[in-house]
Write a structure and sequence with these properties.
Helix content: 25-40%
CATH superfamily: Flavodoxin domain
CATH class: Alpha Beta
Order of helices and strands: EHEHHEHEEEHEH
CATH topology: Rossmann fold
Structural class: alpha/beta
Shape: globular
Low-confidence stretches: none
Distance between the termini: 11 Å
Mean pLDDT: 94
């Protein structure tokens, strides 16, 4: 049976970011659901603002190609995002936009997000838990060819949502996370194009 590879990252690189804590929880849940999990930080993929003139002069920036290769090497993604003014944080949007520009890599025709299973989580101190931003993020990912699963996890009142062990304190929210991770693992397995030796 295929063990799906899931790539996990947060949409913020701020020290102590709620989205990073959310990604920590998701990483543990995905492993419990049977996935092989890789955790990365967008801080390791520094990118200029998307600029077609820049792309025309120098091509896709190397960090975007590296991130695209990470995505291609995995069967699914879990993105834990903060919410900025009821929408997507600019760091995350810029990274997604650059990766979506990749069409060729090492002479191969590629589209990193095409038919990739994706799960979304958010965390915010608001009562909505960042859910408004996830609507926009879902639209962006669907526009670049990803298959975003229906289940998602929005963590409200994030400053008090995590216990001293980093787990979710609220049982209902914890169940949402568990369900979201389980469904992502199942769908990533179904969509995987990898062939086990």
């Amino acid at each position: 049976m295929l063990i799906p590879r899931i790539l996990v990252f947060a949409g913020s690189i701020r020290t102590g970011a709620f989205s990073a804590k959310t990604a920590d929880v998701a990483q543990r849940e995905l492993a419990l659901a049977g996935a092989e999990v890789t955790r990365i930080s967008l801080a390791d993929y520094p990118l200029p603002l998307v600029d077609e003139d820049l792309e025309r002069e120098g091509g896709i920036p190397h960090p975007a190609l590296q991130l695209g290769r990470q995505i291609l090497a995995h069967d699914g993604l879990l993105i834990a995002s903060p919410e900025y003014n009821a929408s997507i944080p600019p760091l995350l949007k810029n990274a997604l936009d650059w990766v979506s520009r990749i069409r060729r890599d090492n002479e191969l025709d590629v589209r990193p997000f095409a038919d990739k299973a994706v799960a979304l989580c958010s965390a915010s101190d608001s009562a909505y838990g960042g859910m408004r931003g996830l609507y926009h993020l879902r639209d962006v990912l669907m526009a670049v060819g990803a298959e975003v699963i229906t289940s998602q996890c929005a963590i409200a009142h994030a400053s008090t949502a995590f216990n001293e062990n980093g787990a979710l304190a609220d049982e209902r929210t914890s169940r949402h996370m568990e369900t979201t991770c389980r469904i992502l693992v199942e769908r990533a397995s179904q969509l995987s194009k990898r062939v086990e030796p």
